[in-house]
Structures
1.
Amino acid sequence: MANANDNAVLREMMNVPEPLMAEYFARNAHRIIDDANYWNVLGTLWKLGGTVVQQDLWRGLFLADRPRQHKIMKGRERQRWRNLPAVVTAYRAVNHPEEAETAISWTLDRKVAEKFSQNAKRQIVVRKFRKQDVFAFFDRLGEEEILVNL
């Protein structure tokens, strides 16, 4: 963190219980001065506990009108994102196929989707996405995750 103001906001957030951090961030994002800090923290928060339960909250945060969106990804993730093919095949475990229409989080690794299928209790949906529609790529936690449908 480069400035005392952003440091103070983030120190406050660290005292919030993890399940409530995204909501805290949404209420206080306007206080973060440095756009790179906004995106870096948002990416970390997503990987810490982003979930489809709060998908609309996350979508709003991802659509923030702030420059330097690429900072949501770590340097290695940006490199991997740049190297994605023009069209990617992505997978998602769903309870009902219609969930796939609005899902923002997908994996490029079928084995990850199989893990989330809870031993085949959930169906795996396969979709193709244009690279230009992939907002972010995360390889943290070994999930090969992309964010789309924003």
2.
Amino acid sequence: MRKTAALCIQKNQQVSVPGISVDVVDVTGAGDTFCSSFVYALNKSDNLAVVANFANAAGDRTVTVMGPWGGVSSSEEILDFMKQKGLFSGNEYNCFLG
């Protein structure tokens, strides 16, 4: 069972995001990537679950790459990672494209 990776609370809404199973290479920058991706996602979507899942995927993807620049990736790369991990299949993340 995956542990909770993020618990996001906004007014009367609470979203718990499960961790993503990855092979960890280097944890440098994972928290920074999560936080910056969360702020970016908040500017793209009002759906807290979409925002939290996007940020979580960005942070989890970061630990699969060596070095502090591992978290530097485009929205498309994060969405591809999410697709590979089976995290979505619909259009809820289209707000991050283009």
3.
Amino acid sequence: MASTYLKRAQGRVEFLVRYVLGAPFYFVLFALVRAAWLFPPLKRQMLLQMEEIFKKVAPGVYKTDEDYQQLFYELTSFASWRGRISAQVLNMEAEVFPGGKATDSSLVRLDGSSCRLLQFARAARPLVISFGSNT
């Protein structure tokens, strides 16, 4: 149980360092990179580097310079930063460790009403969640 608390504390410290203390650094970096984008030689160099990286990570997804330019603006936008913070907070709250308690996530039923995950749990009976598609 102590290791569960230690892992959660480690995740919170990582979040604090990366997103709270590191925010000014990232905003300055994003501003400098966007300013460098205004100079054609630097812009071309950045596009070539992005192309090299993303051909390994996501082959065939980005095909033209316009695709990379769109990706560049998405990666260096405030909305992107806010989305990363939101996702990180959700991941911290939803993190489950062996032997730890399951999170009581909110669910939406097919009729639109809401319920909680642990409402389906019963004593002495495991709750199995299967993710898949019925299509």
